[in-house]
Amino acid sequence: xxxxxxxxxxxxxxxxxxxxxxxxxxxxxxxxxxxxxxxxxxxxxxxxxxxxxxxxxxxxxxxxxxxxxxxxxxxxxxxxxxxxxxxxxxxxxxxxxxxxxxxxxxxxxxxxxxxxxxxxxxxxxxxxxxxxxxxxxxxxxxxxxxxxxxxxxxxxxxxxxxxxxxxxxxxxxxxxxxxxxxxxxxxxxxxxxxxxxxxxxxxxxxxxxxxxxxxxxxxxxxxxxxxxxxxxxxxxxxxxxxxxxxxxxxxxxxxxxxxxxxxxxxxxxxxxxxxxxxxxxxxxxxx
Length: 287
Fold this sequence. Notes:
Layout: E1 9-18, E2 21-25, E3 30-34, E4 47-54, E5 60-63, E6 75-83, E7 87-91, E8 98-101, E9 118-125, E10 131-135, H1 138-142, E11 156-165, E12 168-173, E13 178-182, E14 195-203, E15 209-212, H2 217-234, E16 238-239, H3 247-254, H4 258-270, E17 274-277, E18 280-283
């Protein structure tokens, strides 16, 4: 008879009932199935399929909630808590949240997962038998990937960040494509486990894709124009910024380059919304 181990599924028999649950057995060992972890009334000698884990006091316990993630199997789990001194906790579908220790997370604290992020993980045990989460390696992720073809070029994609490097971030898209986001193709660095959306800017011969989180030119112009027009409205319809303003002044006020600023102004002028005069831009009075 194999030894009962945390992180695994076992088929056990109901040995006896107690006030706080049932003791289950494999013939040589017993484990507690607490009332809060059972599903319905059980009978003596009934066969029960359970997942095994260690309670806070280090005792082996059972639950009838069978998680997808077990020792040797992988699945997506949501981050439910972040503790800088320990790491992050994920929900695998049982009452006990599982820790991914900080040593198994990126060295750069700023890209640690945040609450709500999703991670592709398996389980492992420490020397005391306590369950810990373990991020999937690149070799494991490769089994999930599908090859993209040229038809996805310039298409929008969504996916989750599963790996971060200094040069950029790797994602797996909803379709299963392996995507890379170079640091020049994003405004801010996403966290591990973040869901991101972007567009395909290259399809490689090996079926992987390069993704940009930056907006398309026409999308960016429309967004910048709206931002400038709202600023004008907040200032009573006038502002001391024009297409002749200094780049550093534009960057400081609007967080955009002078080129982007000029393109947005051009859009607003073409739409008949603004005029420029004597170093000022103002909302054009509608006749």
